[in-house]
Structure to design on (395 residues):
């Protein structure tokens, strides 16, 4: 069974074609600058690259070029589009209506539109990818896998904000959480590594990348998570502020005359470790700068580590009987020093990482000492595979 996984952003589209008989990635690619001058598709098959540079005015044209690349005589991997059995789409916000991956129907589309108010950049873009597939592959089933779905198991005391209950009732203002597909994948994988049933696993999943979130998993399900109504809450991120006193927002708006669009931009694009350091949002640059004596880069890295510690420790107390702490995402999988900095201080709870074992990137590795009270792992996430698996199951 061949499954195409599509992840549409507002001007980009990532895709992977899986052979689900052996979960092999046959080909993957990225389309950039959709609707902007200089559209470009890059497809990778092993070491080989195939590039299409042609204007793509919308997502339908982008999807059409993806299909051309997949079936290209010299660079493609299938000879006919009929070889695609199903398409799995990454969707961002399914609100309270969507609690798991679903075959797309009118109800799902309605939910996507309804919750676009909380994901104005993502949901409409996800929808455009879906509509393009429906048009160009009319006989193929589409499945939606939502970032928010895994977190729908959170209890009310964890998803509500400390504001008047009427805002939840009238406007659905609550914590939804994101990166659910990754936290779900990591939970499944950790259960496998520990050789136990997922439903009996309590753990902390730390997805640290450009966007970062930590998830408290209780009985194999999301119990609490650091991202909120939108992916702005929680950890200090590449360019997002994460948690801050809400009064900062109103103060900045008053003092600088910022409107909602501007403040949204300040908090999402100009903040986080980029804003604090003035250097970069990329942790490799920050680590280099800090090593070369840049004070603000050093502070940004310390802030990131401290905020992560706070969530991990708090969630351990919320969940109880935590068996594993798992690092994933670009930073979680690759930054040896950041993992060390975050776990530094947990020795007093009997949790220790082994510096030699921690000298790894990606894969699936145990990095804690033999006598650590909680096992610490590095596990590479794979959201696309998760989407492909759910798609296979549902079709
Ligand atoms: P996204 O949230 O966009 O999917 P990723 O999970 O790919 O992001 O994470 C990207 C981040 O991972 C980069 O910005 C960089 O900070 C970090 N990263 C990648 N490789 C390394 C490395 N070797 N050392 C430290 N940080 C790294």
């Amino acid at each position: 069974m061949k499954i195409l996984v599509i992840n549409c952003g507002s001007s980009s589209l990532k895709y992977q074609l899986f052979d689900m008989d052996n979960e092999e990635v046959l080909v993957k690619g990225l389309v950039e600058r959709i609707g902007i001058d200089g559209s470009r598709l890059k497809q990778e098959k092993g070491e080989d690259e195939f590039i299409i540079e042609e204007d793509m005015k919308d997502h339908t044209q982008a999807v059409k070029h993806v299909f051309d690349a997949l079936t290209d005589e010299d660079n493609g991997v299938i000879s006919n589009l009929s070889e695609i059995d199903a398409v799995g789409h990454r969707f961002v916000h399914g609100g309270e209506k969507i609690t798991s991956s679903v075959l797309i129907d009118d109800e799902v589309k309605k939910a996507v539109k309804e919750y676009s108010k909380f994901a104005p950049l993502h949901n409409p873009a996800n929808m455009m990818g879906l509509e393009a597939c429906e048009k160009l592959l009319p006989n193929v089933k589409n499945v939606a896998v939502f970032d928010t779905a895994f977190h729908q198991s959170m209890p009310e005391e964890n998803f509500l904000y400390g504001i008047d209950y009427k805002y939840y009732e009238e406007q659905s203002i609550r914590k939804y959480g994101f990166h659910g597909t990754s936290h779900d994948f990591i939970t499944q994988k950790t259960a496998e590594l520990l050789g136990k049933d997922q439903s009996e696993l309590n753990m902390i999943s730390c997805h640290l990348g450009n966007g970062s979130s930590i998830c408290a998993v209780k009985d194999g399900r999301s119990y609490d998570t650091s991202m909120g109504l939108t992916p702005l809450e929680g950890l200090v991120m590449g360019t997002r502020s994460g948690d801050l006193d809400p009064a900062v927002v109103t103060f900045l708006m008053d003092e600088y005359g910022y409107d909602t669009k501007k403040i949204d931009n300040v908090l999402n694009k100009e903040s986080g470790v980029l804003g604090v350091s003035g250097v970069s949002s990329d942790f490799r640059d920050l680590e280099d700068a800090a090593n070369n004596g840049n004070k603000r880069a050093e502070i940004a890295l310390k802030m990131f580590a401290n905020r992560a510690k706070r969530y991990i420790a708090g969630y351990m107390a919320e969940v109880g009987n935590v068996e594993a702490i798992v690092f994933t995402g670009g930073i979680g999988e690759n930054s040896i020093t950041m993992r060390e900095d975050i776990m530094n201080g947990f020795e007093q709870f009997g949790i220790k990482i082994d510096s030699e074992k921690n000298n790894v990137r990606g894969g699936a590795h145990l990095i804690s000492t033999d006598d650590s009270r909680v096992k610490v792992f590095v596990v590479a996430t794979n959201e696309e595979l998760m989407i492909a698996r759910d798609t296979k199951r549902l079709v």
In short: The radius of gyration is 21 Å. The chain is about 40% helix and 20% strand.
